[in-house]
Design a protein that fits this description.
Length: 334
């Protein structure tokens, strides 16, 4: 009798784990908006539950099929988890504080992005200055504080533009600004020391829904609408970029706070023309939120394919609830 109960329980756990595996693969590969409440969690959350179920099933059944299921779960996590992307970058060097060093004899530019949290955690300008970036994208910053950051970084010789609590700050000149009055996004044309024009887009997409009452239909609708709004915001930024520049022929950097994990379907809008600096050249733990226990990579830096990302990392600062992202890129035409 006890043996019969163990087997029934074992196969029940095996079935639940298998069903969750199929649901997870479908949700994260297809990324339907109606499943946004499911995929808002990192894939390893569901993977951890699935692995626990398959382990319990193996304990009860001692069946090799349970080990096969565990192996499939493990492979799914390695292929699907954003955190696993850097496993192929083990030979990449990490950026170091100070002025960015050349890479293979070629000059690079250093770009940083940071959500400053309106200075509620303090002034992060010293932490940014320690990395001596050429271009900085900041979000959630008051206009009066932008001047503070620019002066700290460039000794009063920097340039910046402000748009809806976003700012792009650079040591180089800014040729023009393209206003985006609809959303928390901005676009400027930066001219580097060699006269090359680089388009820079700073985004701060709509704040993510945190409703985890997944047993309620309203939560699923809320997450669906939330993702659709972020997709609309990013689509408008890309449309404006295409309408106002010879894109993608002009080298372009796009980054900021996406308020969604890096494997969310919203990022797929960028895959045709942009490359993710961290996925390409990142080292270390890339998640940026929350600073103390970062479980999501909300802050990203993308560059068009004229650039070659050579170094990238997320850096902790005590002056924000986000980590900053530092990326070194080989200059186009160098």
């Amino acid at each position: 009798m006890i043996h019969h109960v163990r087997r029934r329980l074992g196969w029940t756990w095996f079935g639940l784990s298998s069903a969750l595996l199929l649901l997870t693969i479908f949700a994260y590969v297809r990324q339907p908006d109606r499943m946004a409440a499911f995929t808002v969690m990192p894939i390893w959350v569901w993977g951890g539950i699935g692995l626990l179920m398959s382990s319990v099933a193996f304990h009860l059944l001692r069946a090799s099929l349970c080990l096969v299921l565990t192996g499939i779960w493990t492979l799914t996590l390695l292929l699907g988890a954003d955190e696993a992307r850097v496993l192929g970058n083990l030979s990449k060097e990490a950026p170091l504080p100070g002025h960015a060093k050349p890479h293979s004899g070629l000059p690079v530019i250093r770009v940083a992005t940071l959500n400053c949290g309106f200075f509620n955690y303090g002034d992060p300008s010293l932490d940014l200055a320690a990395w001596d970036p050429d271009i900085v994208l900041v979000q959630e910053v008051w206009p009066k504080d932008v001047q503070t950051i620019a002066d700290r970084l460039y000794g009063g010789r920097g340039n910046y533009r402000i748009q809806k609590n976003n700012s792009i700050i650079t040591r180089w000149s800014i040729k023009r600004e393209v206003p985006n009055l609809m959303f928390r996004e901005q676009q400027v044309t930066v001219v580097d020391a060699d006269g090359r024009e680089i388009e820079v887009v700073n985004v701060h997409l709509n704040t993510a829904s945190t409703n985890l009452e997944l047993w309620k239909r309203s939560a699923w609708i809320e997450h669906r609408n939330n993702r659709q709004l972020r997709r609309q915001e990013l689509s408008v930024a890309l449309q404006l970029l295409e309408q106002t520049t010879p894109f993608p022929q002009r080298p372009t950097i796009l980054g900021g706070d996406f308020n969604t994990s890096a494997n969310d379907h919203v990022h797929s809008l960028l895959t045709r023309d942009f490359q993710d600096s961290f996925a390409t050249a990142g080292s270390g733990w890339g998640n940026t939120f929350q600073r103390r226990v970062p479980v999501l990579r909300l802050d990203c830096l993308y560059a068009t394919r004229q650039f070659t990302p050579v170094r990238c990392r997320a850096v902790t600062t005590r002056k924000s609830d986000h980590r900053m992202v530092i990326s070194d890129l080989i200059l186009p035409g160098a």
